[in-house]
Automatic annotation (TrEMBL):
Official protein name in the record: Cytochrome P450
Keyword Oxidoreductase appears in the UniProt entry: yes
The entry's keywords: Heme, Iron, Metal-binding, Monooxygenase, Oxidoreductase
Cofactor annotation: heme
Keyword Nucleus: no
PANTHER family linked to this entry: CYTOCHROME P450, CYTOCHROME P450 12A4, MITOCHONDRIAL-RELATED
Family: Belongs to the cytochrome P450 family.
Positions of heme binding: 479
GO molecular function: heme binding; iron ion binding; monooxygenase activity; oxidoreductase activity, acting on paired donors, with incorporation or reduction of molecular oxygen
Length: 533
């Protein structure tokens, strides 16, 4: 019976004081129970606070300009997502104008923004062993991804990371492997452009190019080239994952969920657990359905990334899907097609605004194509204007807008104003790739303009090693698939430009949003007009 059962007035008047005793006892037990719950919650809150926030006095970093802290950053999702990326990052970036870096705090954790390329280099490249994406106790800026997917190349350190990274470099960057994948890439680009021609128009350009990005990456990964035709399960678990990984306010939601369920901070909360289970289930089905392609002892079928991973990690005919195969498949799931999709979207968008660039590209394609109309692997990799266009699109529209790390050992850096600064252990460092690529101090007054010509006589590699240009980051933790992505996007652009004009009738005043990647806030419709060049 509930304590608060409503009784009518007559019934009550017939009760003697004795009758109320059991109810009174129950009430006292209930109150004592609540008091205990509040006390234990407060104790747990205090333990959490003192454990995960090193001091409660609010940090500052000596010799670094400060902007006001955001002690409850992220409690309100909207405030956090917009606050961090547009407002907070912008303020930090402005404050770093003279010295090249600036700081604020979230709660009591120092947050340091690196603006100057030379300082970014000192931290990300020269001190790469004093920073991490995920600390051994499971915190750090990539901890959400880590709790959902478990250890994969992007979150791992040590032996696992070495082995997994090597696998990616071999299959997604090595020129011999890229040459091998090019014919499939070209065939898939033609297939997807043909679909666009047949459909004539569509309401969402991003969705239209996503199929190509998915098919090409899984063709190299698993040796199947029509994954986009049965990818609805994959895409729906992916969208839940992207929202979570790209949202800084998720840190707080996770903190609150685990706090109330009494779980340690490092463990996945129930929402993360269910997203992670969903991803693993969909991927497992995909791998099981294509197990012959992974089997290292299967005589038929060509090489692919997961088959060679199985071979290298002791897979057999009976058990081809090893732990390494699962980890690498999860990594491809996590980063494999979304950034390339938005990159293709931004490339088509930018070209639609610049017919003069299309003309120059078409001229270069005509000069280099073979008799059958196709560009061969060597030409597409070395055509200078296509390369400049690609580099400029990656500068203006870097799909991954920022990077962050936790400092594990104090790092000493020299500022632009020749001060020496110590970045304390435990602080979070950020570099905004988006703002760096639009920084007038680095790129001049025309930094916001799409100008492939700026790359004439300027090497992307040099800009990258100076940390002025970081679409794929630089240093030991840079993207190991940059070679693949560049070829993938160039191939699609070359096929599109050879066959069609793409018009985007409603794209003016486009707004961007930032979650795990930078994308258009609204779907952008398109029209396809055949064009023979
Ligand atoms: C346009 C497409 C892509 C862009 C712009 C891109 C960019 C990046 C960036 C900026 C990072 C560093 C992230 C950070 O530390 O904050 C990264 C890491 C990584 N990317 Fe990519 N990426 C792309 C596509 C891919 C693809 C297709 C794959 C796999 C098939 C991939 C696999 C990885 C891996 C494994 C890492 C971690 C590397 C390590 O820690 O050693 N990326 N990527």
């Amino acid at each position: 019976m509930s304590l608060f059962t409503v009784m009518d007035a007559n019934q009550q008047s017939e009760k003697s004081p004795e009758d109320f005793r059991p109810t009174l006892r129950l009430l006292l037990v209930f109150i004592a129970n609540r008091v205990m719950l509040v006390l234990s919650s407060l104790t747990r809150a205090w333990t959490y606070l003192t454990k995960y926030t090193p001091s409660l006095t609010g940090p500052t970093v000596r010799n670094v300009p400060e902007v006001p802290g955001y002690p409850i950053l992220g409690v309100l999702p909207q405030m956090c997502n917009e606050g961090l990326y547009s407002s907070t990052m912008g303020k930090l970036f402005d404050a770093a104008q003279d010295s090249g870096l600036s700081c604020t705090s979230a709660g009591t954790v120092p947050i340091i923004l690196l603006r100057d390329p030379a300082i970014i280099r000192q931290v990300l490249v020269e001190n790469s062993d004093s920073i991490t994406r995920v600390t051994p106790d499971g915190s750090g800026p990539f901890s959400i991804m880590y709790r959902i997917t478990g250890n994969i190349a992007v979150s791992a350190d040590g032996e696992d990371w070495h082995r997994w990274r090597k696998g990616f470099l071999k299959e997604f960057s090595n020129p011999i492997a890229l040459r091998r994948s090019y014919d499939d890439m070209l065939r898939l680009a033609k297939k997807h452009v043909q679909n666009m021609i047949v459909n004539k128009s569509g309401s969402d350009l991003c969705q239209a190019v996503e199929g190509y990005a998915l098919d090409t990456v899984w063709s190299v990964t698993l040796g199947v080239d029509n994954i986009s035709e049965y990818a609805s399960g994959l895409l729906s678990v992916k969208s839940g994952y992207d929202v979570m990984v790209g949202s800084p306010s998720h840190f707080w939601r996770h903190y609150i969920r685990n706090f109330f369920s009494g779980k340690p901070y490092q463990e996945p909360d129930h929402v993360e657990q269910s997203v992670g289970d969903g991803i693993k289930k969909v991927l497992r089905t995909l791998l099981d359905d294509n197990v012959a392609n992974i089997n290292p002892e299967e005589p038929l079928g060509g090489d692919n990334f997961l088959r060679s991973t199985s071979k290298d990690s002791g897979g057999s005919y009976e058990a081809p899907i090893t732990e390494d195969v699962l980890a690498q498949a999860l990594q491809v799931f996590s980063l494999g097609h979304e950034p390339s999709t938005v990159l293709l979207f931004w490339a088509i968008y930018e070209l639609s605004l610049h017919p003069e660039v299309i003309e120059k590209l078409r001229h270069e394609i005509r000069e280099n194509r073979r008799d059958n109309g196709d560009l061969d692997f060597d030409s597409i990799r070395t055509m200078p204007y296509l390369d400049a266009v690609m580099t400029e699109i990656l500068r203006l529209h870097a799909p991954i807008s920022s990077t962050s790390r936790q400092v594990t050992r104090p790092i000493v850096v020299e500022t632009r104003t020749n001060d020496t600064v110590v970045l304390p252990s435990g602080s979070l460092i950020f570099a905004s790739i988006y703002l760096l690529h639009h920084d007038k101090q680095v790129w001049g007054d025309n930094a916001d303009e799409f100008l492939p010509e700026r790359w004439a006589g300027r090497l992307a590699n040099t800009a990258e090693s100076r940390c002025e240009y970081l679409p794929f980051l630089a240093g030991p933790r840079s993207c190991p698939s940059a070679g693949f992505v560049t070829l993938q996007v160039k191939t699609m652009l070359a096929v599109l430009l050879s066959q069609v004009d793409v018009k985007l009738p409603n794209s003016s005043g486009m707004e961007k949003i930032v979650d795990s990647v930078v994308r258009s806030a609204k779907p952008i419709g398109f029209e396809i007009h055949e064009a023979r060049i």
